[in-house]
Design brief:
This protein has 450 residues and is an all-beta fold. The protein folds into 2 domains: 234 residues, Jelly Rolls, CATH 2.60.120.200; 182 residues. It has 1 helix and 28 strands. Strands 1, 2, 4, 5, 8, 13, 14, 15 and 17 form a 9-stranded antiparallel beta sheet that branches. Strands 3, 6, 7, 9, 10, 11, 12 and 16 form an 8-stranded antiparallel beta sheet that branches. The longest helix has 7 residues. It is elongated and about 90 Å long. 43% of the residues are buried.
Length: 450
């Protein structure tokens, strides 16, 4: 294996690219589930999400052996033809600290031994070398490291700014860049394959005290992105977003880690997916305003469909999911709905007097969860998409059902901007005072955040 400060192609060369991962920090909330991050702490070192970045060693540890590392659950392939690129918008402080180092890039994480050297990996290392702050480009293969000095002393990237660090992995060569300018590479010798023992690596970020540090070293992260260059060019954009973790099933980046189909918070009537063992309840059905479950679909149960309980021809928002609004520290994401599945609507209490018809409607883009919003300069009323009708005879008994169906919007997705609502609305018709019909059903929304 040989090393050298040789020029290389620019990061992210022209041609098709697939976005495999995009993590954003600085919202005050680290979304470990959504971001697929495993956090491991050694000794007294800590990590916190500040207003503009993730601070590795936020508590300022200088104790020997202390370490903090996070790694992605996802592994990224070392493709024999196509390159993998990782970019890190990062900063650092106290770069002259002795007995301490920062590392970030790709490696096999050892969460059981957070301070252990990486056996396999390609990463940046910030360390004091020859009494000078130094940035190294490192390749670890089968436990042996090769490194090239990328910057040192007065040539180090300014610690007062965030910089875009990039590493591009190929089977025979690794290229490093700072702010999109190539700064060095590591070339593997003939007969040695990069990652000879592995086919994929994780994204890793670590601060480690190899001894008692003279001052606390910090690594500050604003965002991380991973791309594959040249390959996967036939992968639809929606697939790329799902691969990056932006699917409709979980909260978008920057927000608390959670499913979008909510679990019970103690009241099954407010959950899209009640906790295991918890009975489903209908809750209150009020035209224009309730139950309005803040869930992107799930199960629902109605009370008896009579005009003493449910107003005839009243629009009832069963699910009312508000797309998370942005703020000064969190980027709001659009939700693109590519389809909806309306599950079987099953009778749980038989009808007694009259035919009942349930109108099924999607409400799009209202600025509030109620269905009666008046259009104004600062407010949007729901745009309605009628999905169909579910009729039930006067003789319907428990166990009868209306078949489920799907509606595909993939060729023209429904756009719901940050702060707006996507609603599933039921409109009961022909409900008379003595009717006892009650039903249960389900709704699932497909799509992605972007």
């Amino acid at each position: 294996m040989s090393v050298g400060l040789i020029g290389g192609p620019p990061m992210l060369p022209g041609g098709p690219q697939a976005n495999l991962l995009h993590l954003e920090f600085g919202s005050g909330t680290t979304n470990y589930g959504r971001d697929r991050i495993a956090l491991s702490l050694g000794g007294g070192m800590t990590v916190s999400n500040a207003t503009t970045y993730l601070d590795i060693n936020s508590g300022g540890s200088t104790t020997s052996g202390d370490a903090a590392m996070f790694s992605t659950w996802t592994y990224f392939p070392l493709d024999p033809i196509y390159g993998i690129v990782g970019t890190f918008m990062a900063g650092h402080t106290n770069e002259a600290a002795t007995n301490s180092q920062c590392e970030f890039g790709f490696a096999l994480a050892n969460l059981a031994g957070v301070a252990n050297p990486f056996v396999e990996g390609i990463f940046f290392r910030l360390v004091l070398q020859n009494s000078l702050p130094t940035l190294l480009g490192v390749v670890a293969s089968q436990g042996t490291e090769s490194a090239v000095v990328l910057a040192q002393g007065a040539n180090m990237p300014s610690s007062s700014d965030l910089h875009r660090y990039g590493v591009e992995i190929r089977r025979r060569q690794v290229f490093f860049s700072i702010d999109d300018l190539p700064v060095g590479s590591v070339v593997l010798s003939k007969g040695t394959a990069l990652g000879a023992n592995v086919a994929a690596l994780q994204v890793v970020v670590r601060v480690l005290n190899t001894g008692t540090a003279s001052i606390d070293r910090h690594l500050l992260l604003a965002d991380i992105a991973v791309y594959q260059t040249g390959g996967n060019f036939n992968m639809p954009f929606s697939h790329q977003r799902a691969l990056a973790g932006d699917g409709s099933y979980q909260a978008p980046p920057g927000f608390a880690s959670s499913p979008t189909c909510t679990r019970s918070g103690g009241t099954a009537g407010t959950a899209g997916w009640p906790a295991s063992g918890q009975a489903q309840v209908s809750g209150t059905y009020t035209p224009t305003s309730a139950p309005a479950k803040a869930s992107l679909g799930g199960f629902y149960l109605t009370p008896a469909m009579n005009n003493g309980t449910i107003t005839l021809d009243g629009d009832i928002p069963v699910f009312s999911y508000g797309v998370q609004a942005g703020s000064a520290t969190v980027v709001g994401r659009n939700f693109l709905c590519t389809g909806v599945r309306v599950g079987e609507i099953v009778v749980v209490a038989g009808a007694s007097t009259s035919v009942t018809i349930l109108g099924l409607i999607l409400g799009i883009n209202s600025t509030v969860s109620a269905t009666t919003t008046t259009e104004a300069a600062t407010a949007l009323a729901a745009r309605g998409i009628v999905l169909g009708q579910a009729p039930f005879k006067a003789t319907a008994v428990a166990g009868d059902f209306f078949p489920g169906f799907s509606v595909d919007f993939s060729q023209a997705p429904l756009l719901i901007p940050p702060g707006n609502f996507l609603e599933f609305i039921i409109r009961p018709r022909n409900a008379i005072a003595s009717n006892t019909l009650a039903v249960t059903g389900s709704v699932a929304f497909m799509g992605y955040f972007v």
